[in-house]
Please model this.
Amino acid sequence: MHSENRFNLIDEPWIPITGFGLVSLRQLFSQNEFTALGGNPVQKIALTKLLLAITQAAYTPEDDDDWIALQPAGLADKCLAYLEKWHDRFYLYGKKPFLQMPAIKKAALQNFGAVLVEVSTGNTTVLTQSQVEKDLTDADKALLIVVLMGFGLGGKKTDNSVVLSPAYQGKFNNKGKFSAGKPGTSIGFLGFLHNFLLGKSLQETLWINLFTRRQILAIGIYPKGVGIPPWEQMPVGECDSVAESLKSSLMGRLIPVSRFVLLEQNGLHYSEGIAHSGHKEGIVDPSVSVDSSAKTPKAIWVDPEKRPWRLLTALLNFFSQTGNKGFNCYQLSLNIARVMPYVQSVNIWSGGLRVSSNAGEQYASGVDDFVESEIQIRSDALGEQWFANLRLEMDELEVLSKIVYGSTLNYFKNQNMESKGQAAQSSNLFWQLCERRFQDLVSLCDDTSQVRTLRPSFAEFVYKTYDTYCPKGTARQIDAWAKNRPNLSKYLKNTNEEGA
Amino acid sequence: MNIETKRAAQKENAPRSKSRSFVDFIIKRCHSDNGLRAKLTRADNPATEFQSWETLAAFHINLEYENQRLPYATIAAAIARAKADKNGETKIGQAIARCYEEGNESDQAKAKLRRLLACDSVPEVCRILRPLFSLIEAKGAGDMNYAGLLNDLLWFGNDDSQMRIKSRWAQDFYGKPVVGGDGDE
Model:
C-alpha cells in the first residue's frame, strides 16, 4: 500500500469546481474557464491556500511591476512547469505521500468520521442522514488531507502520545501526560474569518492574491520570506529545522502542517503537528483580519449571527483616513490598491467556520455554522469618499436595528410579557432583509447624493419587521402596536430634501 | 409603493368627494334650516332616525343597507349637534387624546381608545362613537374631520380596511406620523 505510488494529485481529478465537477491540478492550471472553487467554505479556504502555496513556490514576483508583467496566463505556465518538476511529490500514496508523515504510523488509527466536522461519531446523536459516516473516495481523502493541514479541530482526536521530535514538550501538559491537540492554525480558537479577493476566473483569482517579495518584506512577520513548501521538504518532527523555518515563513501560514497524518484504507493516523504562533503573539494569516492597535491583538471571528457583509467596514478599514488604527487584513489591504486599475470590479470573498470550544475540545454545535459571503465593488468607486459614505450608512443601519429591537421589546412589555427572544429575532430578520439590498448600497456609495435614495427601502424593512413580530389583532394589541411603532422621521429627513 | 398609493388614492378619491360633499351639504343646511338641524340631531337614535331619512335619501344613500345608512346618520347627527362651521382637521384618535389633560398617557383616554378599537362591526362602532362625540364637543377638542371619519366608517365593514382603519386611529391617538408602510400588506 505504501510502497507503490498511487493517485497523483496533478493527474487525477480531485478539486471541486463549481458548475463543473472534479478537476486535477494540471487541468486547473492549463484550462482557464474555471470560475470558482466548490465545496464548503473551509474546503474553499484550504484549497485556495494550497493553490497559492503552489503559485508562490512556482514564482514569487519581485515587486508590483514584475507582478503586472506576469499576468494570470504567465502564472499558470510557471505553475505547470513547477508541477512537472515536482511531479513525484504529489502522490497521495507512496514513498513520499503528499503532505503526510510516514513516521506517524505509530499513532493510533482514527476513522475518517472523527475528523469531519459534519459527521457524527461516538456518542454524538445522528439526526439526519447527512451526519452518517460515508465511505470516502481517494479524491475526498485528498481534499481531507489538505483541509486538515490548517483546519484540524482541537481536541482528543489527535493521538499525542507519539512525539516525533526528541525532547519536544509541546504535546505534554504540565502534569506530564499528553494533552489534547491544539486547534489548527487556520481555525484558531473560535474560527477565524478568512478573506480573499476573487477574479473572473480561478487563475485570475490566484494571480490577484499573489504576494510579491517586496510585500512579504513589508508585512514583516515572516522573516524567512516565502519559505519552502512542505512537499519539497517535509519536517521530520514537530520542532526540527524545517518546522522552525515553516513557522516563520509565509508558506507556514498557507500550509501550516498543524497535523501529522498518514492515510490508511479505512482511517488515518492522526496526531498534532507543528504548533505555530497565534494572533496574540502577533503572527497571523494574511487572510485574517486583526486589530493590533489594542493591548492584546483582536481578530475577527466568524459569527453566523453577524454575516460578513456587516463587517465590510472593518475589513476595509485601510480606506479610511485613520488607516493605521483598527483592523487590518493584509490580503485585502495590500492587494486591492494594486489590482484596481486592471479590473472593472473588485470582489471580496469572506468565509469560515464557527466552532465552540469546551475543555480544549472543538466542535460545531448550537448556532455554529459555515459562513461565506461575496461582495462586489466597482473599482472606480473605491476610495475614501466611498468608504466614508459606506461607514455612515452602516452606522445608521446599526441604529435602525437597535430601534427595531427596542420597539419590539417595548411592544411586549406594554402587554406585560417577556420577549427577549422575539426582539432578537426581529433584529435578525431586519438584517436578513437588509442583506438583499446591501449590494445596491455598496454600488451607490461613491455618489453622495444618490446614497440616501436607498434609505426609504431600509425604513420599509424596519416597518415590515416590526409588523411581522408585533401583531395587531385585538384592541390591546393595536394599542400597543401603535404606541411602539418606530419613528424614523430623523433617518428619513434628509432623503426628502435631497432625493427630489 | 407608488402603485399602492395610487390605488389607495383611487379608493379614497371616489367616496371622499361624496363624503366631503355630504358633510358640506349637511353643514350648509344646518346653518340655514333650524328645523332640519333638530331632525338631524335625532338621526342616530333608532327610535327617531326616520325623521332624517328624507335628507339622506336626497343624497342617494341606500337606506336599506345598514352599513351605508348608519355612518351617514351618525355623522349627520354629530355635525348637527356640534353646530359645526366647517369640516375640520382633527382626526378621531387625536380628538380622544386631546380630551384629557395627560393626552395619550391618560388611562381614561386609553380606555376610550381601546373600546373604540374593540368594535368589529359598523353598527357597533357607530353606537360607540355617539358618546365620544359628546365628550369631544364638551371638552372642545377641536374641529373634527367629519369627511375623513365618514370615509372610515363606510369602509369599516370590509375586514381588510377595518384593520387598517383601526391602526390609523391608534397611530393618530399616539401622535405617530402615518407615513411609509401602513403595514398590513
About this structure: Residues 384-414 of chain A form the longest helix (31 residues). The CA atoms of residues 52 and 155 of chain A lie 28 Å apart.
